Amino acid sequence: MDVALQGIRKSYGGTAVLHEVSLTLRGGRVHGIVGENGAGKSTLARIMCGAVAADSGQVAVDGEPAAIRSPRDALRRGIALVTQEGAIVPGLSVADNVFLGGGVSLGDRRGRRVRGLRDPAGDRRRFGRLAARTGFSLDPAARAGDLPLVHRQQVEILRALAQGARLIALDEPTALLPAPAAERLLRLARDLAERDGIAIVLISHRLDEVLSACDSVTVLRDGRHVTTAPAAELTPQALLRAMVGRPVETLYPEPAPVPDDAPVVLAVRGLSRGRAVRDVRLEVRAGEIVGLAGLVGSGRSETLRLVFGADRPDAGEVTILGRPATGGSPAHAMGLGAALVPESRGEQGLVLVRSAAENLAMASLPRRRRLGFVRRGAERRAVRAVAEPLGITGPHRPAWTLSGGSQQRSVFGKWLVRSPRLLLVDEPTRGVDVAAKAQIHRLIADLAARGVAVLLASSEVEEVLGLAHRVLVMRDGRIAGEFPRGASAEDVLTRAGLR
Ligand SMILES: Nc1ncnc2c1ncn2[C@@H]1O[C@H](COP(=O)(O)OP(=O)(O)OP(=O)(O)O)[C@@H](O)[C@H]1O
Known about the structure:
The protein is an alpha/beta fold and 499 residues long. 35% of the residues lie in helices and 25% in strands.
C-alpha cells in the first residue's frame, strides 16, 4: 500500500506548523522522519492517522484520495499511529484494547463495544499468534492502565496489527526503551515491512537508529520538507545539518571538578523497597553529578522516588544536607532543597491544561499560594528567567499543545525556578532533539558547577557517562558497580546485564 501526503498545511492559532508538506510512504519500506522539536513530525503523523485535521492538502491511499477524518477512518484505510504516551483505554484489558481497536482508538475512552459479540476463544488464539509474531510477552488479561508505558506501546502495535494496518506510524517508539529492547523493536519494524509489506514510518531523535533502520529519511525543519533521501546516502552529520540548518555542538560539557571540601548533600544507606530497590548506598556531594545507569526496572527511577519521598522505603536511611528525609514526603524533601524532574512529563511533571508559563510560575510560588490564579507578574518573571533561556516555544499555550521537547524543557524549568540544592533527574532528554539535548546537558553541568548536587538516571549510557563525574550501575535493584567518567559504555552495559 502506498500513502501519499500531498501539500499538507496546518496552522495553530495563525502559526503555520506545516507548510505544504508532500511525502509518499510505500509498503515494504521503513521511512524515517526526523527534525528538531517542534518541526512538525508528530503533527504530520497525526494528520496521516486522522487524529488531527489538515487545513488543506490531501492524503491518497494507492492513488485514490482518502477522506480521513478520525483515527477510526484511518484504521479502516489501514493506517495506524503508535504514539509515545500510548493511546490505550486504561480500564480495559490488554486483549480488549487490541481487539476493540476500531472502536476504542483515540477519543473513545470508554471503550464502547462497537463490534457486538466477541469470541473469547478466537481472541485468545489470535492474541497468541500476534504475540508470537511480534515477540511481545503481554498478559492479555492484564488491565492496560496498569502497564508501564513501554508495554502500552506494545499494546498499540498489537492493536494496529490486529486491525490489519498496512501503514504503521511509530512516534518515537524507542525513546523509553533500553538498547536491547530498542534494537528488537527496530528489527520487528523492519520485519513487518519486509515480510508483510507494511509501510513503517519511524519518527525518532536517535539519528543513528534512523540511519540503520530506515530505507529513506525525510527531514522536516520549521514545518517544511527539507529533503527525502535514501538512508544509505546520509550520515548523522548530514542529517543534523539538514535538521538544524547550522552546525551543532554534540559533545558533552566537561563537568567542573568537585572541590575537596564540598559537603555531602545526599547520603543514602541501606535503602530498600520490595524487590525493586535493595540495600542501596550512595552519596552525592555539592557540585557533583552522580549517574545511575541500568536497565528499565533495574531500580534507577525507584531509587530517585524513594529519595524524594514519593514512595516509602521498607528499610534504610536518607539524609539531605544532614537532615533526615527517610520516608518523608515530596513536600518534606522539597523543604530540604530537593527537586525531582520525573521520567514521565505528562503524568507527573506538568499540569497540561495550564500554560508552561503558569506551570513555571506555580512552581516558583510558596505552596499555600499555589492554588487559584497565578499572578501575571510571577508568570512574566518565570518566562524571562526560565522559559526564554530554555527556548520553550509557546510558553503561553496550554502545555499539552507544546511539542514533546518543549514539554520536557518546561518540566525542567519548573524545578529550576526553585533553586534546588539537590536535583534528582530521571531521563532528562527523552524525546528531546539534539540541539535541545545539548542545552539540557549544559544546564545540568552549569547547575552542578554552581554547587547543586545532581543524581541523574538515564537509560542512555552515553549520556550518564558523558555528564556525570562517576556512574553507579544498578542491576536487579542493587548497585552492581561504579565507573569513573570516561569509562567505556561497553563495560557499563556488561555490568548492567545488557550485553
Ligand atoms: N494542538 C496544538 N495547538 C497549538 N499548537 C500546537 C498543537 N499541536 C502542536 N502544536 C505546535 O506545532 C508545532 C509542531 O509540533 P509537533 O508536535 O508536530 O512537533 P514535533 O516535530 O513532533 O516535535 P517533538 O520532537 O518535540 O515531539 C510545535 O510548535 C507545537 O507547539
